[in-house]
């Protein structure tokens, strides 16, 4: 007896969620939407860049798009903001920004890494409650803390008559306190993904917590620390509020000076475009040089295995 095989009816292939999302995001409509968003995002920046090379008279009388019908370029704006004095010179304030930003990045990373190790691999009473309290500090608005911190700095002598310029110390302390909750949370989550066998094997070999932290944990934490370092660097470099509250004119960062470029009567506002691009140079160099660590740090701990 011959058995006739039954024809197999093709079953519609079911896409997994990642495959469906990839198919949706790579569709022609998604590509068109991404292109439109990129154009709307880029046009204002391109206009700012073009305005930074236009003469003062053209900037104050016509829009940047007139460059296509009446082209006119000059480097005078950049020469003014680089070598100018008083309200037009930016170089001393670039130095101030570097002096503020670098310690305000290194200090919270150093403290947060040690705190994250304690929360991840050490046992002590109230650890979970304390970690929840630190996590909750992320929702506290910075504006609420400015006046109490200012009063505290005055009592400690960091500001006031003994320190009329505010001093760098108050700025470093403020940025460190504002950054620690997020830094501890992010580094703790990354550190918990490190295999516990590494820690146990180091303990069996007689290593102390300090040795484990320096020789085992710290090298593995470099991508996460670099990722947070970039975020903190951009945050502090672009900060204006904290600098105005706790700083003084002698240590104002570049952002405070950019606001002063317009002058009290708005006579120098044509320099804002060139000054803005000058302030972008160092953050752009930092991001591009650490970009691979930034991506690795953001993806670290997202998958296991």
What does this structure look like?
The chain is mostly helical. The chain folds into two domains: 27-74, no CATH class; 91-299, MetI-like fold (Orthogonal Bundle), CATH 1.10.3720.10. Helix content is 68%, strand content 0%. It contains 15 helices and no strands. The chain has helices spanning 17-25, 28-52, 56-61, 76-83, 91-121, 127-136, 142-156, 167-191, 196-204, 209-220, 222-237, 241-246, 254-260, 272-289, 291-299. Helix 5 (91-121) runs parallel beside helix 8, helix 5 packs antiparallel against helix 11 (222-237) and helix 8 (167-191) packs antiparallel against helix 11. The longest helix has 31 residues, at 91-121. It is globular and about 75 Å long. The two termini are 53 Å apart.
Structural topology:
Elements: H1 17-25, H2 28-52, H3 56-61, H4 76-83, H5 91-121, H6 127-136, H7 142-156, H8 167-191, H9 196-204, H10 209-220, H11 222-237, H12 241-246, H13 254-260, H14 272-289, H15 291-299
Helix pairs in contact: 2-14, 5-8, 5-11, 6-8, 8-11, 11-15, 13-14
